[in-house]
Amino acid sequence: MELLDIDTRGRITLPKKWRDKLKVKKMLAIQSKGKVHLIPVNSDPLVELKGSFKTTKSTKQLKKQALEELLKEVNS
User: In the chain, what are the helix, strand and coil shares in percent, each to the nearest 5?
Assistant: First the structure.
């Protein structure tokens, strides 16, 4: 556990040892019930899955649905 500072622009810097261990450049930030959850993301999973399955939904709709499912999981 570490206490992280927020700079004047609202940015948080993760400690280098965390960044090195996670090996990610992006994180998904979800605010729920007064807490912030950071989830490492290596790349856009929907872009990587493009063409793997048939759907009538747009990428935007799929992302919205995925976020809703993630929020359900975080809140449970």
Answer: 40, 20, 40
DSSP structure class, residue 3: P
Radius of gyration of the chain (CA): 15
The domain locations on the chain are 16-75
* Cα 1 to Cα 18: distance, rounded to the nearest angstrom: 11
d(CA 37, CA 41): 13
pLDDT (tens digit per residue) in 7-53: 999 999 999 999 889 888 888 888 888 888 888 887 666 666 667 67
